[in-house]
Please model this.
Amino acid sequence: MELAVFSAKPYDKKYLSEALALRSDSSIELIFHDFSLSEDTVALANGSDAVCVFVNDTLNTPVIEALHQAGVRAILLRCAGFNNVDLIKAEKLGLFVANVPSYSPEAVAEFAVALIQTLNRNTHRAYNRVREGNFSLDGLLGRTLHGKTVGVVGTGKIGVAFARIMKGFGCRLLAHDPYPVDAFKELGDYTDLDTLLSQSDFVSLHCPLMPSTDHIINEASVAKMKKGAMLVNTSRGPLIETRAVIAALKTKHLGGLALDVYDGEGALFYNDHSGEVIQDDELMRLTTFHNVLVCGHQAFFTEEALGEIADSTLRNLEDFDERKPCHNALVKQGHLYVKKKSLPVRI
Ligand SMILES: NC(=O)c1ccc[n+]([C@@H]2O[C@H](COP(=O)([O-])OP(=O)(O)OC[C@H]3O[C@@H](n4cnc5c(N)ncnc54)[C@H](O)[C@@H]3O)[C@@H](O)[C@H]2O)c1
Model:
């Protein structure tokens, strides 16, 4: 069974090959493509039984149709989010689609904490200063996390893992989630989004991208945040309206912003553009603020998570091939396993 892996980076090749090597009698054959899946590259899936894709591959209606025409029967997402896939079209064409909904949620949660610690204690600035022989502390003043209020938007696997760590720092925890879970109730209090925004010193986004969360942080909601509060997004870029946070950073209403994901990251992230003139003016404006951190969607990037992702991806394909129930199926035998209201807004 041929599996065409798009957007394949050296680490994808390593971990998928290692996971396959552990399956001595597997019929899976991996074909790696360094470039992403799009309307321009979909022809390379010809002859493959399945494709394996990542967060910034394009699986819009034309691509799904082309995959179907090429004889591809399964789409394997080696990530949790599926906002880049036209699941309705996949359902109509009878394609199997599965994701990896859970892989080391602690990896992402720990990265969100790392961003808070860096931004709050200015270690990113200290690192650069010391290398220049500048040991001045001016401008490096932080705030003790102990006793501060942390707002968690979305208390799924990652949000709860994040909340547990922040509880360990001695923070007071607030959360907003339309589906409250007991695991969070042991750590803090649920409240409505406006109260969370107005009371939190740090707000961390852990909800998926869907119609109800697209630009959940916009001009109106950022205005409701406590003055000087910091905002962290390790979930999906379009949760934040970039223009609104730039305006709030300029007025100093927003005290800091840490992004692992960015609306428009698809054109840039995971590739080296250092020799080019980057055309995204909003992203470039963000990088000029001393109190903004931008990372290139790396919160998941630990050895443990990559191992789990590779193994789950191959297991999803095996389940499909052996017609076994697949717990990670989003679409199977023409049936959509995702609530319609959770479907992506912009593909
Ligand atoms: N940066 C990275 O490397 C990386 C890695 C993995 C996942 N992610 C992102 O993290 C997100 C969360 O992952 P997870 O595994 O915790 O998902 P999850 O499905 O376990 O949890 C998501 C939670 O968000 C809640 N939610 C839905 N709508 C909401 C709303 N309007 N307001 C508040 N909460 C809402 C859901 O009820 C659920 O509890 C994923 O959707 C993905 O986009 C990022």
Q: What stands out?
A: DSSP finds twelve helices and 14 strands in the chain. The two ends are 28 Å apart (CA to CA).
